[in-house]
């Protein structure tokens, strides 16, 4: 099973579940993976930044990826392989593909500036991981400070047959989706899959602009699946109604620094993982933040019963 | 009238209205200023980044500030004086104060890194503008890449008697508000006013954390005023209900690059300014973006009649 | 007298001389300008970063520029007009040209990332200053974090007839000079003047690569003139011998933070300006640094009698 | 053998020698290590940025480190363990120490801004590698964009008993050395070893300011050893004479991007390594750059016979 340009729907960014003592919680990996499948995810992505990949050593990272892959069954799994050098990237990519990954995701190092540097980087990366390994471009300038114009993305797509997907999280990014779909329409770029990140903050309109779905880690991936489905099937108002009900919490979760703490807290409250433990270094929620999230969940539950968690 | 630490409520960040030919629209300045007063703003801020200050030459900038100040009457006006050097900053600050400004706002240059550098900068800035000129710290790391810990803010407050207010737009920032209010509670920092920016994206909780209000430019400053009032008076659910209704549009307006275009578009649609024209360089809304904003306005109008604008 | 693509030789970056009390030292402006002419400079550049331009208010900046221009006589004067916005840039450029400047220099703001953004910026800048005003691109990525490939520079040159010169201070930059001269040779770019900055640290080889000279502020502009002359006339070893003798001091002067303090100290020791005073904020030389510079001057004086300054 | 605060002299930053086909050249590792010992190096550092560490996978990196360590005999070897996460850092540090390393070197990630963030990072890093593993702070703001004041370095030293050395490559940095030695003199910081980097560009004065030596990779480590020895023994003029003779080449080698290509080229010309091959991505020397380096070597050979390499 290899990732290709026809992927659609929602690939949740999976967190790595830990026990409170820092050990990897394999049972929660299984439970979470099952949940993703049950709610209609069409794939998943592991070992991203929000998967705490840098806090895992090489052997652990592989173990985590393998466990997700084994449990995911028919669902394609994308493995993040961004690394400070091509040797580590190539090594991790080969191991991941050997373990059954469907493809890999590559973010640009924050030293890249010019269009030529960005294009050269992806050529060399594709060579390093193997020209037959499908890869996803992660376009996230807010985090990586690397700005890719639509024309540079087109160039990467043109120069690398193995490039099959864009994880779109430019900000603002709606016009970029329209521009890329325009390139496809005018024949200047072959079609690729576009899944959107940025915590889902603009998912309502991203689908309408032509995105194929979402790749992000919001604690309600089931909502993401529903919004993509409603939007794709033309139920615009219903898509926005559901999205808007979640927006206050989604926005809260998207805060840098403590976003992952919020996400894991809510996932644990929902019973999707056993503990919200993170490895160090970790942003922590204080008592006020916990109370705020509980308040947001209670408000959300009035519109979406999936947010009705048991009392603390 | 001098700005002091007792300021409360909402100081809208005023856009600079232009005619389509690029000229300054003085009538719209008057209309907008009147509107701010009518809806309960307690002050206003002009010549900020979102006021297109860098697109005005020195004489124009002063003219704009003077017009706002003259019309604002009893409302205190804060003038942004951030500049690449202390000479221009001091010159603009003196002119603004002479024209009747209540105080000035100073952002840190993006070259500052260490705690010592930040503290030294504000000491030198206060000396440059005059030790008696009340000033506001603008703490906006997402834009300026300068990160101020609560302890550094305390140090600036301690070292500069003229520092009376924090424009808080760190992200995430809720814990920072709590930390600063904690410093006041334990006696290690004298009280200052804290007004929140960041487009208002977290205003609902910022008030609950102890902020005194908002200083931001969302196209519905009347909503900001209502949320601050409701929150302050203990009507928590009502505050969140109103805020949540606006959140989809507010989030849309907060996009970097085209945020100001959206803001001016909505303000023009509301009749607060005559034209949404910006001077160059300007992010522009395409047809799809306009349709999206119209859709958001229509949805909002179901909850808040102030969003019911005439058909296009 | 307008700057054009035939400029050659050395345009010193002139410091702005101050009295110890912070006032502008007009007599030293005259003396310094005379010196530049006497030693063979072919022009000069004022109000650059090293001219402490941000520490001058608008009126002072114009006064300084006018004084230099008036005294320079037949020597063309370039005025730095980099500014946070096009309004201030345009205003300063018009004033400078009215006062007799030969052209202006424009650095890119550090927010630019993509090739398209850089090209767009220079198009808008040229429009803002007037399409007939000759301008110099300042390409200094170490300071501005904006990286321009040779192809982007070619694009700026192609799109802006008024672009006549490159102030080259990329690092490393020798290959860039060769690439640009290659563009001229293959007909893909019209010829422009290339003067090199970076404190002169690579001037010996820059001339050999095809640069037309130097635009930098080293305290011995007479050495820069000699090296460019010797190199141009084919006296390679002599050019390197002189350059190498100065390199220990030149390197010392090029340190960020205190470089200008060293430069002004040496210029004052040489009698070119009356005082080494800087306006705040200023890096200062401690006693050890002064002793180090004196030692370097003494060593240099064994090779170049111009470094033999009177005892302290 | 554990690194401690009494280290002195020169620890060359060793390049990783490759065969032209990209394989690791173990024989050249041995030859190079022998050379370091013969010319008086007091230790060496491997797997730094200039050792192309990111281009080695985990197993290769360990192999390289082990080969250097085995050959180095009595010379202490420092292993670079900077990594995007503490898991990989801890894993590499344990492996290196097990293989006989004397200590490790840790650079700060470029996301750190505030004093508190920097101090917290080193506390967590020391915990990750083991509180008993001696470590070196790499203070290189030009490359990492992290600015550490002398007070922050003092704080790291105070909070981490295992911190034994500073690799000093701030720029400018002479005053920082004086400040740190001042802290030791006034009793506010325990003594640490300070070895200087930055390509050796200021080594002449760094020794005079109190540095204990150099840790850098200039292609003539024998010159570095001589300069440190001459400077330490009070032969100031002789130290500067030798240093100045090398400065034109040293400066040329210090260029970002192609510096390592120049270094390996000269080392291969001297016979210290068999090939100047780098793994991709690599800056390459064109024909003009090669001719320039040959010219610099020929000029240097007039003063230092060690630069007299066989004709090409």
Explain what this protein looks like in three dimensions.
- The structure is a homotetramer of 312-residue chains.
- Chain A is α/β, with parallel strands linked by helices and 312 residues long.
- The first copy, chain A, has a single domain, classed as Alpha-Beta Barrel (TIM Barrel), CATH 3.20.20.70.
- In chain A, 46% of the residues lie in helices and 10% in strands.
- An 8-stranded parallel sheet of chain A has the order 1-8-7-6-5-4-3-2.
- In chain A, helix 8 links the parallel strand 7 (193-196) and strand 8.
- In chain A, helix 4 (115-129) packs parallel to helix 6 and helix 9 packs antiparallel against helix 10.
- In chain A, 56% of the residues are buried.
- The model of chain A has no long low-confidence stretch (mean pLDDT 96).
- The interface between A and D is medium-sized, with 22 and 22 residues.
